[in-house]
Amino acid sequence: MFVKGYNGQVDFDGKTLLITRKGGMAFISQGLKGEKKIPVGNVTSVQFKSANMLTNGYIQFATASSESRGGILDATKDENSIMFTKAMQPEFEELRSAVEEAIEQHSAGRGAQVVSESPLDALKKLKELLDLGIIDQAEFDSKKTNLMGKI
Predict the structure, then answer these.
(1) pLDDT mean by block of 10 residues, the chain; 151 residues
(2) Domain residue spans in the chain?
């Protein structure tokens, strides 16, 4: 899967993320940084901020060795972040889903034990993500409805 953003591109083959920087905006925000490969097993989380009428969105891949900072201004400088416009967002949503699925498969393949949490604990965590701006209200409502059906 290849997606082109505002300040770079991401190529994801199911096992490795390849982030490259091409174009003027990439040079302005990232300088002369080359390509970066991140094995999916090293990705600890995916932060996603939707684009809107006033700001671009971004996808940010956190690793154990990277310090993930929040906010749009920090994302413009982060080497593990790609900015995108509202028109580009659907492709980045697909990328997010593919990477999160690959992370889960990788964890299951290592024999990682998944600790089941109660639906109420999961709802509390979702509310924290909403309050931090990591997910939007529509995503929160959708997941909340799903969780409430399990109570």
Answers:
(1) 91 93 53 76 92 92 68 60 94 95 84 62 84 85 80 62
(2) 2-112, 115-151
